[in-house]
Model the fold of this input.
Amino acid sequence: MEIIGEKINATRKNIENAIRERDASFIQDLVRKQAEAGANYLDVNSGMPLYPEEEADDFAWLVPLIQEVADIPICIDSAYPLVIETALKLHQGRAMINSVNGDPKSMESIFPLAKQYECKVIALTSSREAGIPSNSTGRLKVAEKIAKEAQHHGIPLENIYFDPLVLPLSTDHKNAAVFLETLREIKASLAPARTISGLSNISYGLPKRKRVNHAFFVLAVECGMDAAILDPTDREIMAMVPVTELLMGKDPDCAEYLIAYREGRFNI
Amino acid sequence: MEIIGEKINATRKNIENAIRERDASFIQDLVRKQAEAGANYLDVNSGMPLYPEEEADDFAWLVPLIQEVADIPICIDSAYPLVIETALKLHQGRAMINSVNGDPKSMESIFPLAKQYECKVIALTSSREAGIPSNSTGRLKVAEKIAKEAQHHGIPLENIYFDPLVLPLSTDHKNAAVFLETLREIKASLAPARTISGLSNISYGLPKRKRVNHAFFVLAVECGMDAAILDPTDREIMAMVPVTELLMGKDPDCAEYLIAYREGRFNI
Done:
């Protein structure tokens, strides 16, 4: 299971302020905390500046700043190819791009960058044309189109992380089932492509969200989720990782589980 | 999801004492608590008296005692046909028998009773000949044999609750995966037969058992478990029921989940 730390995201006010004010120690503290908690990538989203040039400036400041304190690749979370390219030029090691979707325009601008920099790419199973299809068949169709186009650009499928898109249960009680079905189908028909998700949207609008999120995490892993975008400093959700891998039969001698226990990772 | 309350089990010392001393109020208190907590059946196991006749006496005392305070069927948990028959004669409504297995002798003694009293029957996917098969194929084979024999006795498959048998992860890290695979295969090939399990054995010998048990519950429901033998007064595990059913797409408008929330069932 790969963990993409979600905390450097300027849609949260205090992060936005830190980026605008170039508060290096605030950002580097978030980097260290997520790296220590076990993140394999750090998602970086600088919010929505008025101009892409401004967002590119943010990334030009953020990328070296982050890599100065942790040897951990960045997941470049931006809508603009200009921003992504700026970040990739400065990035050490293989970055991840967040994200491409099924629009021809999106694929035409992102895939050449992904090819040139040998990146991994998060691919959303949506497009302007199809929207977010309401069933797994529709989402799989978008994924297949993206997979074909990626291969056409010479990008190996194992570098594509499909995100089947989580919509809240509060708007449709079938949303978790559709997501899990899509995960299963992508794994069955597009391997070695990988799967990824930010899961917490599932419980939006419901009370006691954590219970729903934790159980959803377990089910998503069982259905083939390879990576998750989450807060790695949330010890409760991180404790679900060794538990779930143990239950999937992936932990010989329960070794990883027992290490997690001895390190106190279950003492929450 | 059907819940079989597990608390009236004389392998626990205080229950054994209450049965030996015919402490009616102690037993009836356990009945009330489990019924109020949402049990659909109450498992009753009077321990291991030296003679079946003694165990039959226990049940002759227990069955009317239990049914006096709660209108809830009993799951008669005994190895002896004599005991089961004694209980069935006194039981009001349709009981459940715990259990039959793949041995011809077991089926020949249990199925006629199940037919006569129109009972439900828990069927273990093991036999003296096969033991507990180490893989799902072997367990499914035992289940198929039991299903065939049940139908031969005129017992409809929906009255059979297959228990794919949980062995601890601490003895083999594949034990959860084999169990879940067996669950899936039974549901796929023996429907409308049902499935049942006492799940907690999975974490035997491990630290922090609850985390493992809760995640295992979620996975088992996803793989098709219809009923669980557990402690219904354990509010944490009971809270997993509405959460999991919501995530399976079985709770329109999140109605049951919101009722559970409003009733304070998540305030643990």
About this structure: Chain B touches chain A at residues 169-170, 173-174, 176-178, 180, 202, 206-208, 211-212, 215-216, 218-219, 222, 239-240, 243-244, 246-254, 257-258, 261, 266 (CB under 8 Å).
